[in-house]
Amino acid sequence: MYGYLARRILATLPVLGIVALVVFAILHLSPGDPAALIAGDHATPQQIAEIRGKLGLDRPLYEQFVVWLGSLLSGDLGISIFSNQPVTRLLAQRMEPTISLTITTTIVMVLLAVPIGVIAAWRADTWIDHAAMTLAVLGFSLPIFVVAYLLIYGLAMTWDVFPVQGYTPLRDGIGAWANHLVLPSLTLGLSFMALIARITRASMLEVLSQDYIRTARSKGLGPRQLLIDHALANAAVPIVTIIGVGVALLLGGVVVTESVFAIPGIGRLVVDAILTRDYPVIQGVLLIFSGVYVVLNLIIDLFYVVLDPRIRY
């Protein structure tokens, strides 16, 4: 186990290195000049050149990459071009809303998707199965911002149940904190639950066709014990895998959702950074997201042992 863990951690280093190289190249080779944005519309070419020199953008790309990589290895993600603050400080300030939204969305997503998949498999090829899969696929097919506006219109504007925008920190009370996260969590949860529901249904159908399930049913085992204790427990490995993938996909959905609901998280930070071409902030956020994705995959691999004792590393 420990040898496997060490190999996996070492394997992530070249992956993160390649991600850093690709992110740096895409950002710096794409059209646009942050120095021109800082200088304004009426700036002269000389003023823009002076700003480029102060920011180090007049150096060759390989020199800029070496300097940035050296700072990165020392734990320094750089200084924001526009706010002139360390990127690590900006990320720390925006971390709580994004983590809160990710956790609550994961809870909503799992609580909706897994029961839908189990019920659809239990009632396969019936109207319940078709209705459940139609509902799940509909949530995945609609764009996130469309789902967001539908929920805002129904639950915020028409019924006035939840607030439309904003975020309340957890330190100000768990009630206000949860109240502001209901609509964003439902938006993301409905958008990504179809993936988990379909995999849950497929895995459950495969397990329900096994001989030991038929034997348990013939012995008079109740539906709850049959589905939860026997079928779902043995179908858990692919379900947990797709839940991990869904959580990783949430990182992309967070960007849109935080913009729609005006949540001051990392998603809003990266949108603002893209509009102003703030290279250090964009690079820092993308590296953090890539690292989270790699860590999630590692945690899922290690969790397999808990789900299935037959697995050995």
Word description of this protein:
With 313 residues, this protein is mainly α. It has two domains: 72 residues, no CATH class; 218 residues, MetI-like fold. It is built from 13 helices and no strands. α5 packs across α11, α7 crosses α11 and α12 runs antiparallel to α13. The protein starts with a helix and ends in a 6-residue tail after the last helix.
Task: Please describe the structure with a list of short key phrases separated by commas or semicolons.
mainly alpha; MetI-like fold; 78% helix
What are the secondary-structure elements, in order, as H or E?
HHHHHHHHHHHHH
How many separate domains? 2
Q: Could you say which overall geometry the principal axes of the C-alpha atoms support?
A: globular
Q: What structural class do helix, strand and pairing data support?
A: mainly alpha
Percent range of helical residues: over 70%
Low-confidence region ranges: none
Q: Let me know the average pLDDT.
A: 83
Determine the number of helices (DSSP H or I, runs of at least 4 residues): 13
| CATH homologous superfamily classification of the largest domain | MetI-like
- As a percent range, the share of strand residues is under 5%
How far do the termini sit from each other? Answer: 5 Å
Main beta sheet strand tally, sense and closure: none
Question: CATH topology of the largest domain, anyone?
Answer: MetI-like fold
Instruction: Write down the CATH class of the largest domain.
Output: Mainly Alpha
Radius of gyration using CA atoms only: 24 Å
**In the CATH hierarchy, what is the architecture of the largest domain at level 2?**
Orthogonal Bundle
* Annotation, overall tally of beta strands: 0
